[in-house]
């Protein structure tokens, strides 16, 4: 029996839909949807980068556990524009295509910042799971027109070295597919794409939020990443979500976690 994906929920807060940010020959055009708060701006902007294990997901998708908590509405009410970003999945293109796609969205938004009422000096990204990996890496390697001024990582894969051990123990994992083969055969390339290996003293402020009972990406990912950032003198905060699984399943105040992210951004941008 065919499993049909239901129609997406209405998105009444979208101001600019289906903005083409990249048009790679031989691939689908990549789009973003931009939500603007009320007012004249210029507004700080948060790029939302979805998860899905690099195999599934799109910019219109939100984890079932998060969807009821009015993610966009909460950020808009705090004065933040939100840009929902698409990127090529692992079976469409291998890494670093996904990073390039996120950077294309950052570059496009900054290019049209005046027209879109955005503040080019207050760009943040928030990614979950696979998206957490991408925003972390984008924050660490971005500069000039791809720079980010703050990053929020929701339970992302930020230290890829653990996946080499999984590779040796069984079948291929998403990271193996993403990088085009077993990690042990391309360690230098994987290290180049490993957020924890790319930490440097000039990195933007980071906030990681992670459940202690995450069965897909262990809490130790964010814990170790935060420690390495702090060792380099980078502002790095960690919110522990006791008993929460992946996508914060089992936590009863996900709205509060969204608000905590906005609090972090308020403080970072005020200090800047």
Short summary:
The protein is α/β, with parallel strands linked by helices. It has 9 helices and 8 strands. The chain has helices at 71-77, 97-111, 113-116, 130-141, 161-169, 174-178, 187-192, 220-231, 254-271; strands at 14-22, 30-35, 43-49, 81-85, 118-128, 150-154, 206-211, 236-241.
Descriptive report:
It is a single chain. It is built from 9 helices and 8 strands. By secondary structure, the protein is of the alpha/beta class. Strands 1-2-4-3-5-6-7-8 form an 8-stranded mixed beta sheet, with helices on both faces. The mean pLDDT is 94.
The portion of residues assigned to helices is 25-40%
Number of strands: 8
Give the radius of gyration: 18 Å
What does the largest sheet look like?
A: 8 strands, mixed
Low-confidence stretches: none
Tally of DSSP helical segments:
9
Output the strand order for the largest sheet: 1-2-4-3-5-6-7-8
Defining key terms:
eight-stranded mixed sheet; alpha/beta; 272 residues; single chain
């Amino acid at each position: 029996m065919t499993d049909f994906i239901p129609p997406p929920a209405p998105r009444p807060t979208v101001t600019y839909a289906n903005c083409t940010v990249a048009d790679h020959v031989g691939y689908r055009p990549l789009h973003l949807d931009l939500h603007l708060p009320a007012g004249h701006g210029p507004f700080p902007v948060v790029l939302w980068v979805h998860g899905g294990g690099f195999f599934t997901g799109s910019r219109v998708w939100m984890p079932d556990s998060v969807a009821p908590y009015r993610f966009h509405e909460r950020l808009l009410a705090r004065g933040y524009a939100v840009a929902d970003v698409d990127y090529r999945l692992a079976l469409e293109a291998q890494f670093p295509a996904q990073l390039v796609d996120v950077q294309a969205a950052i570059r496009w938004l900054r290019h049209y910042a005046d027209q879109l009422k955005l503040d080019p000096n207050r760009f943040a990204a928030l990614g979950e799971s696979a998206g957490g990996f991408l925003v972390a890496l984008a924050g660490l390697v971005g500069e000039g027109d791809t720079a980010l001024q703050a990053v929020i990582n929701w339970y992302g894969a930020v230290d890829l070295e653990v996946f080499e051990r999984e590779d040796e123990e069984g079948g291929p994992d998403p990271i193996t597919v993403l990088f085009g083969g077993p990690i042990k055969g391309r360690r230098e390339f994987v290290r180049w794409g490993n957020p924890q290996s790319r930490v440097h003293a000039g990195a933007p402020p980071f906030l990681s939020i992670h459940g202690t009972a995450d069965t897909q990406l262990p809490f130790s990912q964010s814990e170790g990443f935060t420690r390495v950032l702090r060792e380099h003198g980078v502002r790095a905060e960690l919110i522990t979500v006791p008993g929460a699984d992946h996508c914060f399943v089992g936590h009863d105040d996900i709205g509060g976690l969204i608000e905590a992210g906005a609090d972090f951004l308020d403080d970072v941008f005020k200090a800047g």
